[in-house]
Amino acid sequence: MKNTNNNNNNNTKLILLHPYIQKQGSSNRLWLLAFISIFTLAFLLTLIYTREAYSITTATTSITSSTPINTINAPLPSTVINTLLHYASKSNDTYHMNYSDLKSISDVLRKCSSPCNFLIFGLTGETLLWKALNHNGRTVFIDENRYYAAYIEEKHPELDVFDVQYTTKRSEMKELIASAKEQVSNECKPVQNLLFSDCKLGLNDLPNHVYEVDWDVILVDGPRGDWPDAPGRMSAIFTAGVLARSKNGGNPKTHVFLHDYFGEVERVCGDEFLCKENLVEKSQTLGHFVLEKMDEKSVHYCKNVNNNNNSSSTTSS
Fold this sequence. Notes:
The chain is α/β, with parallel strands linked by helices. It has helices at about 1-65, 80-90, 100-110, 125-135, 145-155, 175-180, 210, 235-245, 265-275, 305-315; strands spanning about 115-120, 140-145, 160-165, 215-220, 255-260, 280, 285-290. β6 (about 280) and β7 (about 285-290) form a beta hairpin.
């Protein structure tokens, strides 16, 4: 009986252990199956996402590569330019430029290599027009009225406006020209960095980067010169001539436009510092000069010195 009981006990143990082992193995397989399912699902989601991202990237790259680079920095369409010129020439401002003068400047800006560097002396009714026409280019304005300059910059933060303190008087034009000619080999050289110059006609208190830019187009339409103590445009014209001749790179030629060319200061200083030999186009109100980069050892503003002196003396008399 003792043996029988032992056998029964052994059998009982076997019966009790067998289901436990079976249940444990089944649980492990379930966990393994669940893990494989989750891993497979994650892999499929990753694969689908990667393929979609790749498709979008490929499509974007294809569109970008098929789009000409020039369209990104494309110039303004002719219709837009002509519209701007039309409405600017119809302005109610008494001192606005006429259509032919606006078009002359606009035509040069359109031919200018991009980005075009455009420097303007004077804040006028055409200020916003110049910014718009020099699309994708660099446009900088210089004005003698610090309060008006601040007002314009606050009203139109997209504009780069700097004020400058002129120390000249219109009534001193002849003395200032004579002084510049006497110092032509020293402080008033035609090729120099005006930032370090003490020439009476040179503007040396502009922001440093203004002297470092190779300007493609310069417009002199300021400062004021309507009365004897007004600053006049002598310094602006002289500075424009020096900046054009002192370029370090870029296009060796610079277009300089001189507005109100009928005025005495504009004609005399234009002939003296921009030179008649460089005058390529003129109207009653606008002079268009094209100046070339000069050697730093040059001591003459104009190549044809004798003819220029004769024309200046004739104009003054």
